[in-house]
Amino acid sequence: MTENEARQALADLDVSRETLDRLERLVALLDEWRQRMNLIGPREMDQIWARHVFDSAQLIPLVTRQSRILDIGSGAGFPGLVLACHVAEGDGSVILLESVGKKCAFLSAAISELALPAKVLNKRIESVEAGTVDFVTARALAPLRKLLDYSAPWLLRGATGLFFKGEHWREELTEASEYWNLAYEAIPSRTSETGVILKIMEAQRV
Question: What is the reported pTM?
Answer without folding.
Answer: 0.95
